[in-house]
Write a structure and sequence with these properties.
Order of helices and strands: HHHHHH
Helix content: over 70%
Number of helices: 6
Length: about 180
C-alpha cells in the first residue's frame, strides 16, 4: 500500500467522522440555545408577574397625585381662613411639592413620557397659583386668591392634571 492509498483510506474514515461530529455539535448547540431561550422566557414571565402589579400601583398612585394636586381639590383640602395671600400661596405650593415628593419613586414604573406629563402638571399647578397670587397684594386676605383661582379654573378649557390623568390611563391600558 502506498502513501496515497493510505491517505484515501484515512480520509474515507475521517470525513464521515468530522461530518458526524459537526452535525452532533450543531444539534447540541441548537438544543442548548433552545433551553436558554426557554429559561429566558420563564424569567421574563416571572418578572412580569412581579412588576405588573407594581406598575399598576404606580399608575394608581400617580392618578391619585394628580387628583390631590388639582387646584379645586387643593382649595377644598387646605383652608384659607385667617391667612394672607402670601401664606396661602406658600401653603398651596408647599403641599403640591410635598405630594409630588412622596411619589417620586413611581417614575421607575412608568414611561418617561408619562413621568414628564406628571411633572408638567405639578409645574403647571404651581405656576397657576403663583401667577394668580402675583395679581394680589401679598398681605391681602387669602379668600381673594381662592376667588381668582376658582375663576381661572372656570375659564380654562384644558387642565394639565386632567391631561396627565388621561395619559396615565391610556398607558396603563397598554400594560393590561
Amino acid at each position: 500500500m502506498d502513501f496515497l492509498e493510505l491517505l484515501m483510506e484515512l480520509l474515507k474514515i475521517t470525513i464521515p467522522a468530522v461530518v458526524v461530529a459537526i452535525t452532533v455539535g450543531v444539534i447540541i448547540s441548537g438544543y442548548f440555545k433552545s433551553v436558554k431561550q426557554s429559561k429566558d422566557q420563564e424569567i421574563k414571565l416571572k418578572t412580569r408577574e412581579i412588576s405588573l402589579p407594581l406598575r399598576f400601583q404606580a399608575f394608581e398612585r400617580l392618578v391619585l397625585l394628580m387628583e390631590r394636586i388639582s387646584i379645586n381639590n387643593l382649595l377644598i383640602r387646605l383652608s384659607s381662613s385667617g391667612m394672607t395671600v402670601a401664606q396661602y400661596t406658600f401653603e398651596l405650593v408647599h403641599n403640591v411639592n410635598q405630594e409630588f415628593e412622596h411619589n417620586l419613586s413611581q417614575q421607575l414604573y412608568v414611561s418617561n413620557a408619562a413621568w414628564e406629563k406628571v411633572k408638567g402638571a405639578k409645574d403647571s399647578v404651581i405656576m397657576i397659583v403663583n401667577n394668580c397670587a402675583e395679581s394680589l397684594d401679598s398681605n391681602a386676605p387669602a379668600e381673594g386668591l381662592v376667588n381668582i383661582l376658582l375663576e381661572r379654573l372656570s375659564q380654562q378649557e384644558s387642565y394639565a392634571a386632567t391631561d396627565a390623568i388621561f395619559f396615565l390611563k391610556r398607558e396603563a391600558e397598554n400594560f393590561g
